Model the fold of this input.
Amino acid sequence: DWSSDVCSSDLSTKVDEAWILVIEETSERSPVVARIEGDQKFWRSLDSRGLHWRFYDVDSTDADSYRAKAKEVGIPALLIVGKDGAALSAKPLPATTQGIDAEIRRVTRK
Done:
């Protein structure tokens, strides 16, 4: 059973490349999720750190590879995925971009 928590020993080195995915049900978007997704300054700051990001509707074919993991932790979900496509972290979406950033830094060291 895959755990959403990554062992600290697995986090001793910086992740070379990662995707930050927000998976939501767009027809049920809350004001909190809208505010998070609308913070373009935050999302663009990830580009300068060498991180990639995308927002997906849970029912989108683009989310096929991540739907089960996202549903397991709850929608809306924050997934951090390595360049090989493996999930490094899966959590319920934090309520702030600061919370998202803390999880990104914890997992990627970026």
Notes: The two ends are 27 Å apart (CA to CA).
